[in-house]
Structures are given as structure tokens and as C-alpha cells.
Design a protein that fits this description.
- By secondary structure, the protein is α/β, with parallel strands linked by helices.
- The chain is built from 26 helices and 13 strands.
- Helix 5 links the parallel strand 4 and strand 5.
- Helix 17 crosses helix 19.
- About 40% of the residues are buried.
């Protein structure tokens, strides 16, 4: 059941966000982007970043991913893999052995060239998907503790070299992933690897960094140099940790970082804003790079943080589902109370209905005429006169009359009765006559079959009928006993005079006996059949009430479950400003249903084409009702105007719900805006912890991703405008289903990084113990 409910909410979220966020062209990258993921430990990042890009970028299917790996990779149409040399099994030489084998193994270099050439050509083939084709950006992603990072400059410069042959401008950005939270296993070695790589990044980003090596290899083993002279290797180097600058681990762990990488790459490759508003500064990558760089050539690094405040669509869908069920459940319980007469008529239990049923069960009266043809013993009438009626029947027929009656009357009647009860059970009658009647429904049937109920009480009616019918049966049985005791000679029959033959007298008596005795037995059978019907209906009514009771309990449990799920979802949405969801959307549902009732009738949703009053007794039970309920919400409720509002309009509507309902706990518009600004800023803390007292060149920029015309963005842009010490802007995206905020921070050096300061001791101690981490050999200078 929870799966059905969850699927409903998830599908609504997907559909609404696609409706609000699509078609505006704001989520496309302007120029081609090629991702380079380095090492086996980057597979998770590769999969997550590609998924984010595919989901959020309109031209994300045109982005290519190169994965340089040793053992573990991921096969995907957009992923090109290239295998790196295996590391030494000895941990002391693991990292440096990769670099040594790379330099010595020409086959590895040849294969690497093929892959990089192929990647560059495929990027060029994707040109039609981008508005600017003169520039390409390489986004290099690596885990700091992956030993394969030792090949970072070779892989980066080789790929850049091939792209330079096809594009006028090639830029490269680095995204270093630091996983500070670990389970304590191999933390020392992992930390030492990370520190070693960070020291290399520190060197790569110096303004005087240079590299030269014969990396380009043709198919004829002709080697060409790759050269990088006196400049940082990367335009921007981001350090992204699972710990924020406040020293707190982030809830989403590395998953939040993967989404942040996707967003950073979008920001750095997005079309420059064509529309600027007062108090808004657009993002400029070159300006950010200049702002975090100092003149004396020291390495300056960057980090970022991302927060999202989206309309709590998931909570809204569940709240709507719960509110609709509330009304439906109330209507089920408010079903019309049946008076006794109407209940009997609805179920076909009037005296006329029961007689009609019996008429189809009992044989015609001519059955008695057929019995006169039964063989007799030849006894004389004078002998019969000395007997009572039972003795006379036995003397005449020797039991054949009773056997004939049982075989041809009683047995057939019982078979027809069983068939009738199976073909037209009380459950069917209640289903069609009560439950599926929009004016009555499940609860009317439940109360009708209860032991004690207001209005009609089916069990009381049936039991009254059983008592009265039982008395009739007993009375007829007593009359039959008395009839059998009567003397033949006292029967009021005309047997003829002195000259009447004995056979004629016997035949006359036989007709009388059959009419009197078996006529009474037919009457007894009639009442017994009636009693069987009533007893069967009583048992069925008790069973039906138990079944309906289970359904009612399920309904009550579903009502409680829907309310709990909705409330839980609302509580979870509070971080994303999911306030007033209950108040607002319950009122929206109430108004929507009232409008629909006015146009379609107060019971329209009880019809089978909507939700239906008898859905619970269908084959799939409660699941069928939930499916109908979800479909009803999708088709009749969530398509209404209040559910198509933009994030801003919906937020304001919820903020103002208290004006109509005098709810003092509802926040004002200003309160909501302030909360929204605080939540966005708190969750956008950058993903690196620095030692603030040593940070001399901290530089910050903050950007909202939202519709610049909405009131909140204008509020945020002008709030603290005269006192803020950072650059604040808005990346305009129309019809957003939420607001996102990205904080950029740069200008810090390696010594200001808390991770580096705290963990240098591990690196130093490992080196003292014989571990080798650094690059050796090669034609590199720095």
C-alpha cells in the first residue's frame, strides 16, 4: 500500500517539475563539456553526475564522459573507458608504481592516445547540440585518496592536446573530492594518499607550473611532446568535502557533492545572462578567477556549496490524497439510512419476492396426480377402513409413495434451492443493491448487517422471519401427525353406494390420501424451503458483516495511514519551507470538491467511473480503492489551477492562507521570505573547512537560480544590499519549481585547509615508514 501511495506522489513530483522546469531553455550548457573521471573510486561520482546532467540539462545527452580506471568502470553509451596500469600490490609503492609503469609501458600510452583521440572526435560530433562551438571545457573529477590521481597531469594534458586540434579554446577545471567521514578502516593510508595528492594539486596550480613530456603517440609509434608552460594547470580547482566550512558533516554525504559538481559545471558553461536587473550581477568565470588570485603566484583554491528550496510537491501530493480520502470516507459513513421496507425491497426480501423465489423451486401441483399412478398392493377398501391414514398408506404403497415424493419433489427442490442461493447470494444482493448504490455505500451495508443498528436491521428481520417460519413448520408437522392418526373410515369422502366396485372405492381413497397427506407435505416443504432461505441468508449476513467489518477496519487504518504519511512528509519538508501545507491544501481540496459537487452532484465521486462506493469488494480489495483514489486525484484534483502555480505564487498563496481562516500560527509573507533566505544560506555552506584566522584572501560570490522577476528574489537581492561583503546575483530561470542557491568561495591556500593541516602528520609518518607517494622520473618540471 505504501508503495502505491509513494509511486503516486513521486509521479506527481516528476510530472509537475517537468511541466514547470521544461521548455524555457535555461538549463542548457552553452559549449561542449567533456568529463574526465580519474580512478576506480570515481565510479560512483561518474554515475551520479551523469544522472544529474541527464535529468537537469536539456542537452545533457550530448555530454561525453571519459573514465580512466584500473579494475572497476561503468559501461554506458556516453562513457568511454581507458584502462590504466595496475598498481603494485605493496601498499608502500602502490601510488608511485602506477606512474612508473605508465612511463615504461608504450602499449598503455598507445591505447590512451586512441581513447583520448576518439573522445575528442566524439565531442566535436556533438557540436550541433550547443550554441557555442569554439570552446570546450574539460571537467576533471578525482577522489583525493585514489592512487590513480598520480597520473592527473598526463591524462589532463593529453586530452587537452587532442581537443586543441579541434577547438579554438580549451579550458580545464578540477573537482577534487575529499571524503573525510569514514568507518575507521585504512583511514591512515587513505589520509596519506589524500595529502600527497593535495600537495601535487598545490604545485599544479602555481602560476609558474610547467610540464613537458612526449605523450602524443601516433599509430607508427612516432612521439610528439605535450607541453604546458608557466601557468596553473587548471582554470579553477575546487576542493569539495563531505564536511562544511562549519565543521559539520553533510546529511547527504558525497551525493550532495555530486549534484554540486553538476551545478558548478553548468554555471561555468552557461550562456551569459542577456538580461540584467538592478542589484543583480551575473556570474563571470574570469572575474571569479581574478578575484581569488593574488599577485605573488601562490596557489589559490575554490570551493562551493549548494542548497535547494523546492515547492514541497511530494508533501502536497500526499496531503491532497489524504484530504480527498477524508471527504470520501465521510461520504461513505454518511450513506442513507435504510428503513425496513426499503431495505427489504432493495434486497428482494419482501413476501412477494420470497414467494417468487419459492415458485421457481417447488414443483407444480400436478405432481400429486402423477403419484396416483403408483403401484398399490391390491388391499380392499374394507380392510383399509380398519386402519389409520399412516397404516393405510403403508398398506397401499409399502413406502413407495414417500420414496417417490423424496426423489421427485424434495430432492429436486433442494437442488434448485442450492442453485438459487449460489447464483443469487445475499452478498451479491447487498453488493448490487446497497454498496454500489451511490446514495448508500459500504457503511450502509455494514450497519444494515450489524447486530444492533439504527433503521433497518437485516439480522433482526431475518431472525424474526426464521422464528415465524419455524412456528409454521412445526404447526404443519403437528397437523400432519394428527392427519396420519385419523381413521380411514372417518374421512369425509364419497366412496359410492352398495353397487360401487371395491376398486373404485380404493382409487377414491387413494386420491384423497394423496391430496390430504402429500398436499400437506407440499405445504410443509414450501415452509421448509422458506426457512432454509432465511437461515442461509442469516449465516450469509453474519459472514458479510464480518467481511465488511474487516473492510471498515482497513478503511479506518487507511485513513490513519494516509494522514500519518502526509504529516510525516510535511514534517520532512519543513527544511524546504513546507509550512502551511495542511492548512492550505486541505482548503484547496475542500473548495475543489465543493465546486465539482455543485456541477456534477454531491455524490459524483461515489460513481464507479470515479472512485465508486463498491470498490472495496472488488478482487483487489483495498489496493483497488487506493488506485482509484490516486487516479481521481490525478484527473480531477491535481489538474486544477491552484496546483499549476509557480514556486513563488504557491509560496505566497500558502503564506496568505491564514488571512481567510484567521490562523494565528500561519507565517506572514515577510516571515516566509526571511525563513527562506536563512534556510538557503545555511544549507549552501561551502564544502570545505578552512582555518579562518589564516585566510587573508577569502572571496565570496552567491547566486540564486530562480525567476528574477519573483518577489522573493527581489527581496533577497535588496536585503542587506548596502552592508554585504560578497557579490550576490541571480541566474534567471523562468517558471522554476523551486529556488536554488550556490555559494562560491575562493582565495584560500593549502595551508589554510583544515584537512591538510590536521593530516600532514599521517603523510609524513608514512613516508618515514618507507611509503612512497610522490611522482618520480618523467620529463616534468615545476
Amino acid at each position: 500500500m505504501r508503495d502505491l501511495i509513494g509511486e503516486f506522489a513521486t509521479q506527481y513530483v516528476t510530472d509537475l517539475e517537468r511541466q514547470l522546469d521544461s521548455g524555457n531553455g535555461q538549463r542548457s550548457i552553452q559549449n561542449p563539456v567533456l568529463f574526465l573521471f580519474l580512478g576506480d573510486k570515481s565510479v560512483e561520482a561518474l554515475q551520479a553526475v551523469r544522472a544529474h546532467n541527464e535529468r537537469n540539462w536539456q542537452n545533457g545527452h550530448g555530454v561525453l564522459y571519459v573514465h580512466a580506471y584500473q579494475d572497476k568502470t561503468w559501461e554506458h553509451p556516453q562513457v568511454i573507458g581507458c584502462r590504466l596500469p595496475q598498481a603494485d600490490a605493496d601498499k608502500k609503492k602502490m601510488r608511485t608504481s602506477i606512474h612508473e609503469r605508465f612511463l615504461l609501458d608504450e602499449a598503455v600510452t598507445m591505447e590512451l592516445n586512441k581513447v583520448m583521440k576518439l573522445a575528442s572526435v566524439r565531442v566535436a560530433e556533438m557540436g550541433k547540440l550547443f550554441t557555442a562551438f569554439q570552446q570546450v571545457n574539460i571537467a576533471v573529477v578525482a577522489r583525493a585518496d585514489d592512487p590513480a590521481t598520480i597520473l592527473l597531469p598526463e591524462l589532463t594534458l593529453l586530452l587537452k592536446g587532442y581537443l586543441n586540434e579541434l577547438f579554438k579554446n580549451v579550458s580545464v577545471d578540477l573537482y577534487v573530492l575529499l571524503q573525510e567521514k569514514n568507518n575507521g578502516e585504512a583511514f591512515g593510508f587513505s589520509t596519506a594518499l589524500s595529502v600527497s595528492f593535495l600537495e601535487e594539486v598545490n604545485r599544479y596550480q602555481r602560476s609558474d607550473y610547467s610540464y613537458r613530456a612526449n605523450l602524443l603517440v601516433t599509430e607508427d609509434l612516432v612521439k610528439l611532446p605535450v607541453e604546458h608552460v608557466n601557468a596553473p594547470l587548471f582554470s579553477l580547482a575546487y576542493l569539495l568535502s563531505d564536511k562544511t566550512e562549519h565543521g559539520l558533516f553533510i546529511e547527504g554525504g558525497m551525493q550532495e557533492i555530486y549534484e554540486l559538481i553538476s551545478k558548478l559545471v553548468l554555471l561555468n558553461n552557461k550562456k551569459v545572462e542577456s538580461e540584467f536587473h538592478e542589484s543583480n550581477d551575473g556570474y563571470n568565470k574570469l572575474q571569479f578567477m581574478r578575484s581569488i588570485t593574488v599577485d605573488h603566484g601562490q596557489t589559490k583554491l575554490a570551493s562551493a556549496g549548494l542548497s535547494k528550496v523546492k515547492r514541497p510537491t511530494h508533501a502536497i501530493a500526499l496531503t491532497v490524497l489524504s484530504a480527498v480520502f477524508d471527504r470520501y470516507w465521510e461520504r461513505l459513513q454518511d450513506g442513507e439510512v435504510l428503513p425496513k421496507t426499503k431495505a427489504r425491497e432493495k434486497l428482494g426480501l419482501t413476501a412477494h419476492d420470497l414467494q417468487r423465489k419459492l415458485a421457481g423451486i417447488l414443483p407444480e401441483d400436478h405432481i400429486l396426480e402423477e403419484m396416483t399412478g403408483l403401484m398399490t398392493s391390491g388391499i380392499s377398501y374394507s380392510e383399509l377402513c380398519s386402519m389409520n391414514m399412516r397404516e393405510a398408506e403403508l398398506a397401499l404403497f409399502d413406502g413407495s409413495s414417500q420414496a417417490f415424493f423424496e426423489a421427485n419433489v424434495v430432492s429436486g427442490a433442494r437442488k434448485r434451492l442450492d442453485h438459487m442461493l449460489s447464483q443469487e447470494s445475499l452478498a451479491d444482493l447487498i453488493q448490487k443493491g446497497i454498496i454500489e448504490d451511490e446514495r448508500l455505500g459500504l457503511y450502509a451495508a455494514y450497519y444494515l448487517t450489524a447486530e444492533h443498528a439504527n433503521g433497518a436491521n437485516l439480522l433482526d428481520e431475518l431472525r424474526t422471519g426464521i422464528r415465524e417460519t419455524s412456528r409454521q413448520v412445526e404447526q404443519i408437522k403437528a397437523e400432519l401427525v394428527d392427519l396420519y392418526q385419523e381413521r380411514v373410515e372417518r374421512q369425509d369422502i364419497r366412496v359410492g353406494g352398495f353397487f360401487t366396485r371395491d376398486k373404485e372405492r380404493v382409487r377414491t381413497f387413494i386420491r384423497h390420501l394423496l391430496d390430504a397427506v402429500y398436499g400437506k407435505k407440499l405445504e410443509l416443504l414450501d415452509w421448509e424451503m422458506m426457512l432454509s432461505i432465511l437461515v442461509s441468508y442469516e449465516k450469509q449476513a453474519e459472514q458479510i458483516h464480518r467481511q465488511l467489518g474487516e473492510q471498515v477496519e482497513q478503511l479506518e487504518a487507511l485513513h490513519k495511514q494516509l494522514r500519518e504519511i502526509a504529516q510525516t512528509s510535511v514534517r520532512e519538508a519543513t527544511d524546504y519551507l513546507g509550512k502551511n501545507v495542511d492548512e492550505y491544501y486541505e482548503s484547496v481540496v475542500h473548495e475543489t470538491i465543493r465546486s465539482l459537487e455543485a456541477s456534477r452532484g454531491s455524490d459524483f465521486y461515489m460513481e464507479q467511473r470515479y472512485i465508486g462506493s463498491g470498490a472495496l469488494l472488488s478482487g483487489n480489495r483495498l489496493a483497488g480503492l487506493v488506485e482509484r483514489l490516486c487516479q481521481f486525484c490525478r484527473n480531477e484534483i491535481l489538474t486544477r489551477a491552484p496546483f499549476a502555480l509557480s514556486f513563488e505564487a504557491e509560496l505566497l498563496a500558502r503564506a496568505n492562507v491564514g488571512a481567510a481562516y484567521d490562523n494565528r500560527t500561519v507565517l506572514t509573507k515577510e516571515d516566509l521570505f526571511l525563513d527562506l533566505a536563512l534556510v538557503l544560506e545555511e544549507r549552501a555552506a561551502v564544502h570545505i573547512e578552512v582555518f579562518h584566522f589564516l585566510q587573508k584572501h577569502r572571496y565570496e560570490e552567491k547566486y540564486l537560480f530562480a525567476d528574477i522577476h519573483n518577489d522573493f528574489v527581489q527581496y533577497a537581492l535588496h536585503k542587506d544590499e548596502s552592508t554585504r561583503t560578497y557579490k550576490l546575483g541571480c541566474i534567471h530561470e523562468e517558471q522554476k519549481s523551486g529556488i536554488e542557491k550556490m555559494n562560491l568561495m575562493g582565495g584560500f591556500g593549502m595551508e589554510e585547509l583544515m584537512f591538510y593541516r590536521n593530516n600532514k602528520k599521517y603523510h609524513a609518518s608514512y613516508e618515514e615508514s618507507g611509503f612512497v607517494f610522490r611522482r618520480v622520473g618523467g620529463d616534468e618540471s615545476s
